[in-house]
Specification:
The structure is a single chain. The chain is of the alpha+beta class. It folds into two domains: 38 residues; 120 residues, Ferric Hydroxamate Uptake Protein, Chain A, domain 1, CATH 2.170.130.30. It is 24% helix and 32% strand. The protein has two helices and eight strands; from the N terminus they run H-E-E-H-E-E-E-E-E-E. The strands form two sheets. The protein has a six-stranded mixed beta sheet with strand order 2-1-8-5-7-6, with no helix packed on it. Strand 6 and strand 7 form a beta hairpin.
Length: 168
């Protein structure tokens, strides 16, 4: 009939509370996933052509690449898997750490694989701000020290990315 027992009412209330909790948790988890990429610069979707300059000393390789990858970490992995570059990396609390790239092999704690680019975007440049990093020059062109790691460095059509040995 129309009237429910006390037990049935209690069961409906419990199920309603469980449904609300499940909904709230799913919204929180979706929010966490969005937060993970919160500080990441926006990617350029679609096919793009970029140039990589990789090297140290007198040995540099220039590679022009067509790719659908959106960020540098994905492109480096793709090029490694295709046998186009030698690349070793590790995962740390800040994301992907480039251990070595072609002939760039840091030998001490005061050396690293440095990343530069020609994207004139203040959010991607480390040469401005509180602790400015030096820019680099290659073949008469200035490249900006990257303020983001390879996980967050967006690939932009027509731009050049320069990797070399950084030292303190």
């Amino acid at each position: 009939g129309i009237f429910m027992t006390q037990k049935a009412m209690t069961l409906i209330k419990i199920l309603a509370i469980v449904a609300i909790v499940v909904l709230a948790m799913s919204l929180v988890l979706v929010g966490c996933d969005k937060l993970k990429d919160a500080g990441k610069p926006e990617a350029e979707v679609g096919n793009k052509e970029i140039t990589l300059i990789i090297g140290v000393g007198e040995e540099y390789a220039t590679v022009v690449v067509k790719t659908y990858q959106e960020y540098m970490a994905g492109l480096l992995l793709e090029l490694k898997l295709r046998g186009k570059i030698e690349y070793e990396s590790s995962q740390g609390s800040y994301g992907t750490f480039v251990e070595s790239l072609n002939n760039i092999r840091p030998a001490s704690a005061s050396e690293w694989v440095a990343v530069y680019h020609d994207i004139d975007d203040v959010t991607l440049r480390a040469d401005i701000g509180e602790w400015p990093m030096a820019n680099a020059e290659y073949n008469g062109k200035t490249y900006f020290s990257s303020s983001v790691g390879v996980d967050s460095l967006p690939l932009r059509n027509g731009h050049t990315y320069y990797f070399t040995l950084g030292t303190m």
